[in-house]
């Protein structure tokens, strides 16, 4: 499908946006590339694992050559693993694991209910409601008094006693560029955590903060800031790459939707909103001369994700579906490109 004077190609849910003046002049330098991994809960992690394995195994994406990875929420978990030596194939294998102890190997059992009585559940429900409301309001307010914070803690879930973060993610930041996105609930502002940044957080703290879904998981407190899921600000935070002058960016957006289709109304509204915001940022990057490849789930795959993206037990099915869908889309892209090349050669 062509749009905007032939600058946009969209084939089977893979969107390639050509920069103005495409194709670029010949260059001997290595292209500068980026990878943006969006939010999506546990189902989003499985989806991203499948899509990444398809891209990497087909040669469409070289993880080792990426100049920057930006991760939001689920994408922060996957991005951190990629930068610390876990390969796309490893991620895919973990997602598809259905053997004994699979949930432990994936980290699905890291969190456990934080309440032990009806009263503590009520207190946490009230505290979680406050955290959720503060996360959605983007203007500063005074922090909750410490005494009230202790009485009404935010987060219905907490790290389980047996959770071994060190077995899944190191504390040390990788040398390569990795940005993990969070939001400070007291200021309403986005906070990017990275190696050598102004906020000194280790990699585990940063990943947990970026994935701290407001109201569900407890906020992460770092150097006086109370940080929650960066998806509160944007499902991908692609706009962070504006002005970076990258040649090509790949975006995996598990909460998006590749085309308007028959999806349950609440799910459709959320996904369409994420898609529209993403496309606005893509257009701005395109105007700067960056080619962007966007991977969003089809309606069938979005239905497979379901409404509860934090549920367990669906990782294998979603990872396999995302892998198959991405491979199919890449094959369609190759065939379409070959057809166009043949038509141009014949003319």
Overview of the structural elements:
With 347 residues, this protein is of the alpha/beta class. It contains ten helices and 13 strands. Strand 10 (220-222) and strand 11 form a beta hairpin. Helix 1 (41-57) packs across helix 10 (315-346). The longest helix is centred in the C-terminal third of the chain and has 32 residues, at 315-346. The two termini are 21 Å apart.
Task: Give the key terms.
347 residues; alpha/beta; 10 helices; 13 strands; globular
In terms of topology, how is this protein built?
Elements: E1 2-3, E2 8-11, E3 14-17, E4 33-37, H1 41-57, E5 68-72, H2 74-83, H3 88-96, H4 102-106, E6 111-113, H5 118-136, H6 146-151, E7 157-159, E8 178-184, E9 190-193, H7 203-210, E10 220-222, E11 225-229, E12 248-252, H8 265-287, E13 291-295, H9 299-305, H10 315-346
Parallel strand pairs: 4-5, 4-12, 5-8, 12-13
Antiparallel strand pairs: 1-2, 2-3, 3-13, 6-7, 8-9, 8-11, 10-11
């Amino acid at each position: 499908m062509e749009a905007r004077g032939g600058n946009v190609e969209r084939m089977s849910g893979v969107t390639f946006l050509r920069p103005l003046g495409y194709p670029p002049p010949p260059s001997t330098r290595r292209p500068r590339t980026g990878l943006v991994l969006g939010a999506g809960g546990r189902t989003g992690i499985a989806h991203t694992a499948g899509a990444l394995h398809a891209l990497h195994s087909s040669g469409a994406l070289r993880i080792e050559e990426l100049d920057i990875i930006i991760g939001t929420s689920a994408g922060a978990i996957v991005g951190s693993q990629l930068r610390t030596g876990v390969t796309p194939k490893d991620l895919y294998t973990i997602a598809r694991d259905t053997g004994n102890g699979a949930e432990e190997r994936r980290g699905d059992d890291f969190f456990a209910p934080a309440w032990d009585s009806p009263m503590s559940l009520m207190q946490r429900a009230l505290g979680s409601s406050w955290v959720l409301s503060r996360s959605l309001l983007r203007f500063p307010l005074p922090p909750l008094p410490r005494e009230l914070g202790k009485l009404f803690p935010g987060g219905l879930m907490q790290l389980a006693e047996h959770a071994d973060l060190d077995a899944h993610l190191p504390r040390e930041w990788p040398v390569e560029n990795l940005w993990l996105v969070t939001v400070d609930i007291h200021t309403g502002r986005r906070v990017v955590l990275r190696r050598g940044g102004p906020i000194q957080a280790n990699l585990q703290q940063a990943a947990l903060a970026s994935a701290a879904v407001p109201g569900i998981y407890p906020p992460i407190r770092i150097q006086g800031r109370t940080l929650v899921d960066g998806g509160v600000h944007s499902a991908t935070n692609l706009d962070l790459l504006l002005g970076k002058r990258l040649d090509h960016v790949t975006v995996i957006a598990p909460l998006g939707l590749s085309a308007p289709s028959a999806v349950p109304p609440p799910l459709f509204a959320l996904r369409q909103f994420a898609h529209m915001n993403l496309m606005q940022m893509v257009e701005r990057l395109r105007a700067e001369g960056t080619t962007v490849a966007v991977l969003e789930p089809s309606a069938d795959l979005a239905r497979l994700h379901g409404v509860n993206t934090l549920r367990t037990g669906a990782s294998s099915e979603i990872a396999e579906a995302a892998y198959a869908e991405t491979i199919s889309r890449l094959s369609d892209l190759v065939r379409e490109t070959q057809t166009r090349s043949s038509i141009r050669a014949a003319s």
